[in-house]
Amino acid sequence: MSIDKSFHDYFSALDRSAGEDRCYLCRRTPADVKSFFGFHEDGVPIDADKYGIEHVDIGKLDVMSYRGERPVCAACQLNMDALFLMDEGPILLRLLRQIKEERDMLWPTTDDETDSK
Predict the structure, then answer these.
(1) Burial call 40-54: b when 16+ CB within 10 Å, e when fewer
(2) What pTM value is reported for the model?
(3) Which of 20, 26, 39, 70 has its Cβ near the most Cβ atoms within 10 Å?
(4) Is 28 exposed, middle or buried (0-12, 13-18, 19+ CB in 10 A)?
(5) SS3 for 38?
(6) How many helices (H) and strands (E) does the chain have?
(7) How far, in Å, CA of 21 to CA of 47, rounded?
(8) What would the pLDDT profile of 43-93 be if each residue is shown by its tens digit?
(9) Strand-strand pairing, 64-65 and 72-73
(10) What is the pLDDT of residue 80?
(11) Residue 39, strand partner residues
């Protein structure tokens, strides 16, 4: 992809997400995502000497997708892939509905906490 196209995708995504370069789902920044996968922001492995890692460099590999409705990080995309591979899509949709419409049901009540003691 040309740098011009990447540039426009990135800034269009920032416009859609109110100027925040964060994952829409987990709120990680690109640097946080690289750290999650074990790399410094520049793409060099964290603790490479400690673990004997040689010649591994993610370089300019994208860890955020900017072409969708909102930016989504590689970690969340992997989590979604796993859920859909396990045919958990319908459960995920039901959970999203519960979060939206039945939020109080998801959390323990004061009675639940005292009953468990």
Answers:
(1) eeeeebeebeeeeee
(2) 0.71
(3) 39
(4) buried
(5) coil
(6) 6, 2
(7) 26
(8) 778 888 887 877 666 656 688 888 889 999 999 999 999 999 999 999 999
(9) antiparallel
(10) 94
(11) 45
